[in-house]
From TrEMBL, chain A:
NCBIfam families in alphabetical order: FGAM_synth_I, PRK03619.1
Name listed for the protein in its UniProt record: Phosphoribosylformylglycinamidine synthase subunit PurQ
Organism whose genome encodes this protein: Marininema mesophilum
GO MF, any single term: ATP binding
This protein's UniProt keywords: ATP-binding, Cytoplasm, Glutamine amidotransferase, Hydrolase, Ligase, Nucleotide-binding, Purine biosynthesis
Source superkingdom: Bacteria
Pathway the protein acts in: Purine metabolism; IMP biosynthesis via de novo pathway; 5-amino-1-(5-phospho-D-ribosyl)imidazole from N(2)-formyl-N(1)-(5-phospho-D-ribosyl)glycinamide: step 1/2
From TrEMBL, chains B, D:
Lineage: Bacteria, Bacillati, Bacillota, Bacilli, Bacillales
Reaction(s) the record says it catalyses: N(2)-formyl-N(1)-(5-phospho-beta-D-ribosyl)glycinamide + L-glutamine + ATP + H2O = 2-formamido-N(1)-(5-O-phospho-beta-D-ribosyl)acetamidine + L-glutamate + ADP + phosphate + H(+)
Protein name: Phosphoribosylformylglycinamidine synthase subunit PurS
Pfam families: PurS
Subunit structure: Part of the FGAM synthase complex composed of 1 PurL, 1 PurQ and 2 PurS subunits.
Database matches in PANTHER family: PHOSPHORIBOSYLFORMYLGLYCINAMIDINE SYNTHASE SUBUNIT PURS (PTHR34696:SF1)
From TrEMBL, chain C:
Domain Phosphoribosylformylglycinamidine synthase linker span(s) in chain numbering: 21-67
Sequence ranges assigned to domain PurM-like N-terminal in this UniProt record: 88-203, 453-572
Similarity annotation: Belongs to the FGAMS family.
Highest taxon, organism lineage: Bacteria
Entry keywords, A to Z: ATP-binding, Cytoplasm, Ligase, Magnesium, Metal-binding, Nucleotide-binding, Purine biosynthesis
Protein name from the UniProt record: Phosphoribosylformylglycinamidine synthase subunit PurL
Residues binding Mg(2+) 2: 131, 282
This protein's pathway: Purine metabolism; IMP biosynthesis via de novo pathway; 5-amino-1-(5-phospho-D-ribosyl)imidazole from N(2)-formyl-N(1)-(5-phospho-D-ribosyl)glycinamide: step 1/2
CDD domains, per database record: PurL_repeat1, PurL_repeat2
């Protein structure tokens, strides 16, 4: 399974994503510079965290116009797996691949912590190795993770099972309905504020992120096997 | 040369965390008479265009494409010769 | 070629003529003394023009030349078997084996923070990051040491809020984890807060760079943010009279752009990897002037600089302004002639502005050209090597003798121990700093094994079993009461912290924050603190590989507490050795290593109860310290330690409580002692560590420690959810861990919730 | 009840990296005619006061104390009955 990690000016979790995939799955990963349009050779794309273009204007707003995003949009439309983590989530939202928008955290401060979450939907390609309603711990590190969508959209998300993760305990940013991660309607694009790539081995304080990557690999292997 | 002053605001239906926090701070500084605060962005864009119609069109387009996020924001602008 | 003696007319800003400068003593506006001005005249063989004078004034400032501190800094040990680069470059370099080295340095940004806390603190972080990657190293961790006034003041709360946000913003955006630091609150810093930032990087030996210009005709390349009128030398002499400069054009606060820094970092490291660079230096204090002059002097060459080619953000900047601007996120590179295109390709990829702005020349002239005129022509050595040095005399203040007689024991020993514990835990200097470090991304780069909140942070090295432990420390109260002991203690405590994390201390970087050195008592503090630090460094085998001096920290004529801050880096040989301060399991035995003398001078309890400090700080026996550290490290490496926590501010009681908090595990302490309860629990005697060890190892561990000549007593065990302390058969403290933890965790957030104002 | 619309701008001599980044993006989106972009804040503050003079004084005071940072920012405001 070939992974692409697009790199924008200001991405800073790109290497962490690569390390996670190599460590957990041992599958090949390429960094793809933001000026490259073509992502056809990849099976999955991980849009990494960081501060693309300094998060100026709005987080993700400037990166979403990079040429590489054309490849990301195409991959998403072809049903390939696209995972946006933190700033990657924000970029996918700005690009219209995921619903809602981010506001600054309700306490106005950047917040870094290890956060309890619950897996609301474990039937996605990204979450099938988790149990339904499983309590997990993932690191968070963001200043603009306060997810917003209007009432109508929220209903749709609930009905379609697009709410994938919720914060448990105290909500670290004020997001609507404690939402921590959402998918697109088709389920092949996932965005989440927490960082699964920062929780893959014991010394990191949690290993709960590893299953997201194993889920993705299993999905792909089954798909290839079926084909 | 024209100067567009663009104001981008959160939609009124969207809770404004910054506005609420600033309101709270103003209250604790003794400005009890403040009933609401909303915070938005001001963008000054200098643009060369043959006329104000063209300049306006350009500004409109850049607001829609980039400067405001229609999911949560609204915008308006004023144009002046500069 | 003679420089234009009068740049008036070529610049939008009216500048005084050389004669005016002399006759009206305008040099004093730039901080030069009459004697120094005479020296400049002698070096040039004529009167300097305004630009030249500006260049001399910044190069001869304390900040660049260390004219007041240099003779003292010479007393610090800088050598050791692992030292690859000592003081003198962007940052120090220490060998850590496997062909790798650790690169680190600390720097202050005190004054800018007092003026504009967000940008001031943020640009402090930016500067120290550049110091590290200008060595060719990949920055892997940040730490910071902060000093603020009491949180009762709304202005102080504003300063802290903004400074922390600025530090967080910069490090978070660049993507370097901020893994540690310290914060102390004391009235002495009310008008003069301290922000010291430290950066740690990793490098392969062969990639180590130098800030040097070499090879005649080689190009000097400017890269990074364009130059504006940021933070130009504060002395805006008589500008009303001589220039039309409007309010808007006035030299302004430096503002940082961490996004630009990230691009600059990646681009520079890519150039290092390609092996293209001959020399690289960041433009920090005194901007283009300091970086170019130092590189030139170090290379034993000359330099021609063409200011019209310098990327500029504002219009009509004068040579003086371009040379002295402190715009952030800029680097100067020297490469071989003919490789400009290769360099530009990399810089363009990262979308960085760049330009060839000069050439290395034969000889020793430092020449600046602007609008086709030569506006400065200076023998470069006179800027760097011939900077004046002030040999000052310190004088022991009278109060120092008087202090010894101070008596406070009686008042303190009457305090109820539980109340004392609650008060000390609620003191902002001691309370949980979560409110601060929660704003820092401490995990980016996925190498952080011990996050903020333990004695020292630990990061692991990719692909290797080892890691680095790091800590910044300094207790200004001790230094105030006795600079020598206090200076030594800062080093000892930093080393102890690193040892408790399972590391062998390697070396330090230090930041000396003091008052006005022209005052004999301040100079005495500086001198003694340095001697104390030097002695500790020698004893503990941790050389000083770099640092920074920040003098003139005063408000309304009164100096801050002398505040040397020590940044220590240690090597964790195996990930198995990584240890934290938190109790791990019920039933573990608590061992206290080191002797307790019940010393309360300068203690947190004294400050809390009496509202002031007096007496002598805890004494420090460096031989005992060394033995203690080696015993602790030995035990940890043997695999027999569950937790290790050094005893510092707040003494034993606080150490036990802090160890209990992380996992909510209580302790039952039962001891016999000759001391009374308060000095026993809250005395801050040095060279002590609290260990928890599995029951089955307890005997063996005690024997091992005692064999190394270190006092060791079994004081209790990890148990339940209560903190219960029995002394000489009486239960003196009995509290729920959770209720103590609430006090400790809420103190700073509660204080910060009140209003702020700028 | 009054509504003050306060505009806070960075002083022109202070680096505005956000403005530069947005300008860059506008260029790469094809808005080559944009010559400069500066970004500031708009704050709408609703305040009850007996008259516009009193409201203006309050607004002035809150700008100085909290809403603007005089070291790097300038502000102005408009007041309207609301
Ligand atoms: N307190 C100190 N202890 C040891 N070395 C110091 C101290 N202060 C400064 N130095 C060293 O002196 C050299 C010059 O420092 P400095 O001019 O501050 O460098 P920079 O220009 O990077 O700030 C540096 O190598 C620095 O490490
Ligand atoms: Mg400690």
């Amino acid at each position: 399974m070939r992974f692409a990690v697009p790199v924008f000016p200001g991405s800073n979790c790109d290497i962490d994503c690569e390390k996670a995939i190599t460590t957990v799955l041992g599958e090949p990963v390429d960094f793809v510079w933001h000026t490259q349009r073509d992502l056809d050779q990849y099976d999955a794309i991980i849009v990494p965290g960081g501060f693309s273009y300094g998060d100026y204007l709005r987080a993700g707003a400037l990166a979403r116009f990079s040429p590489v995003m054309e490849g990301v949009v195409k991959a998403a439309s072809e049903g390939k797996l696209v995972l946006g983590i933190c700033n990657g989530f924000q970029i996918l939202q700005e690009a219209g691949l995921l619903p809602g928008a981010m506001r600054v955290n309700d306490h106005l401060k950047f917040r870094c912590d290890i956060q309890p979450l619950t897996v609301v939907n474990n039937s996605l390609a990204f979450t099938q190795d988790y149990r339904r309603d499983e309590g997990i711990q993932l690191p968070i590190a963001h200043g603009e993770g306060n997810f917003y969508c209007d009432e109508v959209t929220l209903k749709e998300l609930e009905q379609n099972g697009q709410i994938v993760f919720r914060y448990v305990g105290s909500n670290p940013n004020g997001s609507v309905e404690d939402i921590a991660g959402v998918s697109n309607r088709e389920g092949n694009v996932l965005g989440l504020m927490p960082h699964p790539e920062r929780a893959i081995v014991e010394w990191m304080g949690s290993q709960d992120g590893a299953k997201m990557f194993t889920s993705m690999l299993r999905y792909w292997e089954e798909k290839i096997g079926a084909a | 040369m024209y100067k567009a002053t663009i104001t981008v605001r959160l939609k009124t239906s969207v809770l404004d965390p910054q506005g609420s926090a600033v309101k709270g701070s103003l209250h604790s500084l003794g400005f009890a008479a403040v009933t609401d605060v909303r915070i938005g962005k001001t963008m000054e864009v200098w643009i060369s265009a043959p006329g104000s119609t063209e300049a306006g069109e350009k500004v409109e387009e850049m607001c829609q494409k980039l400067l405001a996020n229609p999911v949560i924001e609204t915008y308006d602008y004023e144009l002046e010769g500069a | 070629m003679q420089p234009n003696q009068n740049v008036m007319g070529t610049s939008t800003v009216m500048e005084p003529t050389p004669e005016e400068i002399r006759d009206r003593k305008l040099y004093s506006e730039l901080g030069l003394t009459p004697a120094e001005f005479e020296q400049v005249e002698k070096h040039l063989g004529r009167l300097p023009n305004w630009t030249e004078l500006g260049i001399y004034s910044v190069m001869w400032s304390e900040h660049c030349s260390y004219k007041n501190s240099k003779p003292l800094l010479k007393r610090l040990p800088v050598d050791g078997p692992r030292v690859l680069q000592g003081p003198g470059e962007g940052a120090g370099v220490i060998d850590i084996g496997d062909g790798q080295a650790v690169v680190f340095k600390i720097e202050s940004h005190n004054h800018p923070t007092a003026v504009e806390p967000f940008q001031g603190a943020a640009t402090g972080v930016g500067g120290i990051i550049r110091d590290v990657f200008s060595m060719g190293a990949r920055p892997v961790a940040l730490l910071n040491s902060l000093r603020f006034g009491p949180l009762e003041s709304p202005r102080v709360r504003y300063l802290l809020e903004q400074a922390v946000a600025g530090i967080a913003h910069y490090g978070n955006v660049v993507g370097i984890p901020t893994v540690g630091g310290e914060v102390e609150f004391d009235a002495t810093y009310e008008g003069n807060p301290l922000v010291n930032a430290m950066c740690v990087g990793i490098i392969n030996h062969e990639d180590i760079q130098q800030g040097v210009a070499k090879g005649v005709d080689n190009p000097v390349i400017y890269v990074g943010a364009s130059t504006g009128r940021d933070g130009i030398h504060g002395a805006i002499f008589a500008s009303e009279e001589l220039s039309e400069a409007s309010e808007e054009k006035r030299p302004s606060v430096q503002a940082g752009d961490p996004f630009m820094e990230k691009l600059l970092l990646e681009a520079c490291l890519e150039l290092v990897q390609k092996g293209i660079l001959l020399g690289i230096q960041d433009m920090g204090a005194a901007g283009l002037t300091c970086s170019s002059a130092e590189m030139t002097a170090k290379g034993g060459v000359g330099l021609d600089l063409y200011l019209d080619d310098v990327p500029q953000r504002e219009e009509g900047m004068s040579p003086y302004e371009i040379m002295l601007s402190e715009s952030q996120e800029r680097m100067l590179l020297v490469v071989e002639e003919g490789r400009e295109a290769e360099v530009k390709e990399v810089l363009d990829k990262w979308e960085l502005p760049s330009a060839v702005v000069g050439r290395v020349t034969e000889g020793d002239r430092y020449r600046i050209f602007h609008q086709r005129e030569c506006v400065a022509d200076i023998p470069v050595k006179t800027l760097v090597d011939d900077a004046p040095i002030n040999y000052r005399q310190g004088e022991e203040p009278l109060s120092f003798r008087e202090e010894t007689a101070a008596s406070y024991m009686e008042e303190l020993t009457g305090v109820d121990p539980t109340e004392a514990l609650q008060r000390v835990l609620a003191a902002p200097s001691l309370a949980s700093k979560r409110w601060v470090y929660q704003q820092y991304d401490s995990m980016v780069r996925t190498s952080t094994a011990v996050r903020p909140g333990s004695d020292a942070a630990v990061i692991v090295l990719d692909g290797l079993d080892k890691g680095l432990a790091m800590s910044v420390d300094g207790n200004s109260r001790y230094v105030k009461l006795d600079p020598h002991v206090g200076g030594a203690t800062a080093v000892a405590e930093a080393a102890r912290n690193v040892v408790c994390a399972g590391a062998r201390p390697l070396a330090i970087t230090d930041c000396l924050n003091f008052g006005n050195p022209e005052k004999p008592d301040v100079f005495w503090q500086l001198e003694n603190a340095i001697d104390g630090m030097g002695e500790a460094c020698r004893q503990l085998g941790t050389p000083v590989v770099g640092g920074n001096v920040s003098l003139y920290n005063e408000t309304k004529g009164s100096a801050i507490h002398p505040t040397p801050v020590v940044g220590m880096v240690g090597l964790v040989e195996s990930r198995d050795h990584i240890t934290t301060q938190s109790f791990q399991q019920e039933g573990d035995v608590l061992l206290l290593l080191g002797a307790n003398f019940g010393e309360l001078g300068g203690s947190e309890l004294q400050q809390q109860v009496l509202g002031m400090i007096s007496g002598r700080p805890p004494q420090l026996d460096l031989a005992a310290e060394k033995a203690l550290q080696s015993a602790v490290l030995h035990l940890i490496q043997a695999g027999n330690v569950s937790s290790a926590h050094d005893l510092s501010t707040g003494g034993l009681a606080v150490a036990i409580a802090e160890s209990a908090f992380a996992k909510g595990l209580g302790a039952r302490i039962d001891v016999e002692t000759d001391l009374t309860v308060i000095p026993y629990l809250f005395g801050e005697s040095q060279s002590r560590v609290l260990l928890s060890v599995p029951k089955e190892f307890a005997k063996e561990a005690m024997a091992m420690v005692e064999k190394q000549g270190v006092t060791c007593s079994r004081i209790g065990e990890v148990s339940g959810e209560q903190l219960s302390i029995w002394i000489n058969g009486v239960e003196v403290v009995s509290e729920q861990v959770s209720s103590l933890q609430t006090i400790w965790e809420e103190a700073i957030p509660c204080a910060m919730n009140a209003s702020l104002t700028n």
